[in-house]
Amino acid sequence: MAAGDRLSSLYRLAADLVLYLHIAFVVFVVAGLVLIVVGHIADWRWIRNGWFRLAHVAAIGVVVLQAWLGVLCPLTILEMWLRDKAGDAVYPGSFIAHWAEQILYYDAPAWVFTLCYSAFGLLVLASWIWIRPRSITRKNAPGDS
Q1: 59 pLDDT exceeds 70?
Q2: Looking at the predicted structure, is the pLDDT value of residue 123 above 50?
Q3: How far apart are CA 140 and CA 45, in angstroms?
Q4: Residue 136 domain-assigned?
Q5: Domain extent for 121
Q6: Structural domain tally of the chain?
Q7: Residue 132: CB partners within 8 Å, gap ≥ 6?
Q8: Which of 46, 75, 80, 141 could bridge across to 145 with cysteines, CB 3.0–4.6 Å?
Q9: Residue 9 in domain
């Protein structure tokens, strides 16, 4: 394999890893809210963990802010730059990366995403009020997570 081919493969691998990180971020935001609500009903103590809840509200807050400012997600920018450096053409990346990208990226006007992100952000804020997290500064009692 030529040095250029190896470098292209490394860029492609890095782009795939960024895509998987992006998907993990989306899963954290969406599944996080579902787990908070289900955990409240099931009386799971860990869903009130202040650090988890702060990370969750911050994650959707960044998404909403980017949408309102019209800023493209840095993970998307990085992935596309890496794919460009890899010289990707018709079928970028691996088979799994291709299908993961099909699931993650939708073709719709920007206002649709801003509306959806904002509505979801409001749901996360409502969960913060409805299902109060424990204080972040408080030392956890034995058995708390």
Answers
A1: yes
A2: yes
A3: 11
A4: no
A5: 3-130
A6: 1
A7: 48
A8: 46
A9: yes
